[in-house]
Amino acid sequence: MSDKEVILTQDGLKKLEDELENLKSVKRREVAERIKVAIGYGDISENSEYEDAKNEQAFIEGRIITLEKMLRNARIINSDDIGTDAVSVGSTVLVKDLEFGEETQYTIVGTAESNPLENRISNESPVGSALLGKSKGATVDVNVPAGVIQYTILDIKK
């Protein structure tokens, strides 16, 4: 991961800080204990418990480095920065699909917080980037692999 700016909401910042704290204080100790126990089994060259624990340790250390870099490069979006006149990172947007008439509500977040299953979409995603800067009542074209989706923005909230 480069030193790219990471856009976070206050909630997103807290989640990353909590994950980092858990990895450093709990998970590191747990995996160190697993390694110690596995070494106690004797020959580590054919010891799958030792291999698994070492792999998990490498994953945890990598994730800690990634989280620390993300937090160093974080730009926090405060609710005061979020307007309701145009879509921005942190906005919750109600859109209507013009082809199917379905309404969907999205929250626009930075890539670190995106979770499509919760309709939290990245500002860099096709839908997120198409909505950014647009106002209530605007119709936007979103280029997706299946073609173009047209949305009308019905509402913008903080």
Describe what you observe in this structure:
By secondary structure, the chain is of the alpha/beta class. 39% of the residues lie in helices and 26% in strands. It folds into two domains: 6-77, Orthogonal Bundle (Helix Hairpins), CATH 1.10.287.180; 80-157, Chitinase A, domain 3, CATH 3.10.50. The protein has a five-stranded mixed β-sheet with strand order 5-4-3-7-6. It has a two-stranded parallel sheet with strand order 1-2. It is elongated, with a radius of gyration of 21 Å. The mean pLDDT is 92.
Structure summarized in a few sentences:
The chain is an alpha/beta fold and 158 residues long. 39% of the residues lie in helices and 26% in strands.
CATH fold label of the largest domain: Chitinase A, domain 3
Global Rg: 21 Å
> Main sheet?
5 strands, mixed
Number of strands: 7
Order of helices and strands: EHHEEEEHEE
Averaged pLDDT: 92
Q: Which helices and strands occur, and which strands form pairs?
A:
Blueprint: E1 6-9, H1 10-40, H2 48-72, E2 74-77, E3 92-97, E4 103-109, E5 120-122, H3 126-131, E6 139-144, E7 147-157
Parallel strand pairs: 1-2, 4-5
Antiparallel strand pairs: 3-4, 3-7, 6-7
Helix pairs in contact: 1-2
List key phrases describing it:
158 residues; alpha/beta; Helix Hairpins; Chitinase A, domain 3; 2 domains; 39% helix
